[in-house]
């Protein structure tokens, strides 16, 4: 007879371990079927699923087969002629009755400005990033909406190399967009991170440019976001004798500084 148990965990190994504990068996004594592979969280805080497996073994006993008893067919009493006539008349009256109008669906309220929609989205998603209270300050500018997030846990909002902040800015821009509306950029910052990061990148670009000029060898920088690569390219294009270009794909895309050919 097959004896089985289901286990879940962050990884497949964790799920197998949980299933084996339920069975009271070692890993080598059971066979495993993977039901669901684990998935990563989006932005490191949304979604994601655990792994789920089934571990099983055969105890050598014959499998018990449960006997299925057939229930007697219900006896259908034939309706009398009078009842048949009344039933037919009732069905005819119901078919001729006017159909009731379908209930109207409630219309979604019309959203406000892009600024309002951006703030509303951030108020929903920020509690998933930090449990600390935050304050959202926004202003409408000529080219878009500028938003500053203030709070105690700004490092969680910034993320590694600004990845969480960039993702928030990107998603907020998409969610707050409205068909037919003039394109307006959403700019999000916290703790003046973007200004400080821009100064750091400009300083590093000039430092690496000097090294390339002295050694004559090209230099590859760490992976950067599109906006950060743009800052480095702007610095290098103002330096005589040097050029910059990007290589790599996706999150591994880097800037290369080299002597101008």
**How many structural domains can be distinguished in the coordinates?**
3
- CATH level-two architecture of the largest domain: 2-Layer Sandwich
Record the strand order, biggest sheet. Answer: 1-3-2
- CATH structural fold name of the largest domain: GMP Synthetase, Chain A, domain 3
The CATH superfamily of the largest domain turns out to be K homology (KH) domain
Helix content, binned percent: 25-40%
Number of strands: 9
> What is the 3D shape?
extended
Head-to-tail CA distance between termini:
74 Å
User: What is the ordering of alpha helices and beta strands?
Assistant: EHEEHHEEHHEHEHEE
CATH hierarchy, class of the largest domain: Alpha Beta
Low-confidence stretches: 63-79, 100-110
For the sheet with most strands, the description reads:
3 strands, antiparallel
How would you describe the oligomerization state of the chains in this entry? single chain
- Category from helices, strands and their pairing: alpha+beta
């Amino acid at each position: 007879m097959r004896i089985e148990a289901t286990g879940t965990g962050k990884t497949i190994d964790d799920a197998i371990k949980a299933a084996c504990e339920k069975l009271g068996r070692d890993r080598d004594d059971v066979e495993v079927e993977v039901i669901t592979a684990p998935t990563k969280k989006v932005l490191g805080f949304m979604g994601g699923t655990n792994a789920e497996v089934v571990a099983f073994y055969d105890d050598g006993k014959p499998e018990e087969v449960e006997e299925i008893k057939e229930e007697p067919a219900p006896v259908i009493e034939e309706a009398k002629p009078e009842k048949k006539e009344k039933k037919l008349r009732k069905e005819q009256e119901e078919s001729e009755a006017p159909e009731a109008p379908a209930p109207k669906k409630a219309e979604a309220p019309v959203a406000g400005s892009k600024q309002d929609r951006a703030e509303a989205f951030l108020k929903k998603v920020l509690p998933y990033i930090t449990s600390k209270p935050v304050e959202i300050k926004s202003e409408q500018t000529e080219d878009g909406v500028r938003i500053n997030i203030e709070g105690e846990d700004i490092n969680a909002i910034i993320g590694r190399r600004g990845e969480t902040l960039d993702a928030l800015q990107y998603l907020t821009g998409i969610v707050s967009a409205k068909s037919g509306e003039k394109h307006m950029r959403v700019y999000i910052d916290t703790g003046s991170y973007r200004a400080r990061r821009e100064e750091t990148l400009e300083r590093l670009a000039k430092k690496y440019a000097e090294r390339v000029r002295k050694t004559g060898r090209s230099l590859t920088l760490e992976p950067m976001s599109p906006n950060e690569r743009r800052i480095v390219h702007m610095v290098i294009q103002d330096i005589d004798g040097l050029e910059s270009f990007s290589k790599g794909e996706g999150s591994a895309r880097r800037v290369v500084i080299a002597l101008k050919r």
